[in-house]
Design brief:
Elements lengths: L2 H5 L18 E9 L3 E9 L8 E12 L6 H7 L1 E2 L3 E5 L3 H13 L12 E5 L14 H10 L17 E2 L2 E2 L1 E11 L2 E12 L7 E2 L2 E2 L25 E8 L5 H18 L8 E8 L6 E2 L25 H21 L3 E2 L5 E2 L4 H8 L3
Amino acid sequence: MRGSTLVGGRHPTGALDAITDVVGVRVGHSTVIEGDDVRTGVTAIHPHEGSTFRDQVPAAITVLNGAGEITGRSQVEEYGLLESPLLLTSTHSVGTVHAATIAWMAEREELAHDFVIPVVAETYDGFLNDVLGDHVRPEHVRAALDGASGGPVARGNVGGGTGMALFHFKGGIGTASRVVTVEDTPFTVGVLVQGNYGRREHLRIGGVRAGEAFDDLRPLRLVPPPRRPEGETGSVLVIVATDAPLSDRQLARLSRRAALGIGRTGGIGGHSSGDLMLAFSNAPSVRVPRRPLPNTGGRVPLLVTTPRLHDAWIDPLFEATIEATESAVFDAMLAAETLVGRGGNTLYAIPHDRLEKVLSGG
């Protein structure tokens, strides 16, 4: 079962129902499961088929609730451009992933007289994972970056989503896509989420209060909870990709619609939640080369004209973003498997057969 089949939508899915339906996007995971207490990892997303450092893409970031981290945000906001792959991981692994990504890019790019500020985002996997153990290592980051590919995307308990929870069920990585047609021109919107948020009583699937039917599958906590109110703990990362030629301003509008997709699922952007959305376009016409183009004499052009979609036609892309985000969240839940982690703490997968009965009124 996929998230898109669960909630439907007005727009059709792409062939893979994944962020990789946006041609050129590549995804890779390193899943780190060791012993009884290590349940973590890292996920890498390359925006297009080449080097994002050499061919930057327009991008924008939205913060719904800021109790989380995404590095490089100030530069993305300043330039409206993304210059690195996107890395998703665990809260206390951001530093390791950031440094490893710089080292990986230094081996492949001309960084001798330049610098790079990678974009690394996190959610907290401390219920299942020993977060203070520094278990995501540089080799895991390199494996995710080198192993990224197009095609089907591994989902659920993988990569950065390995130890994550959704609405007190097992969560993780989910993905979805939608295809819209604007004046006979098809465009694809793809979404990938690292889902780790929500209280059971808030869960809404197609408008149905589904969470209350699963009180017997509450998380099993054997390790004492932190000394603070738990509230709506956790976070969500939403990466929105499109091949529609959009400016960074338009992508900011798109990223804000991803928050509406989170709201459809029952997410409230709780006090201790880091809800971060990044949108980018990899349309060739809007990419920005770092170096002057050939046959320009090495000079940067005085004026830049970039074709982009007129705002009057952007509403279908808003709809597609909302639909794909909602679907990707449920995709993560449906793909996840029950997992036992730190100290015997357990997160249960949502049972598909029981869910179908709940949604059908049975």
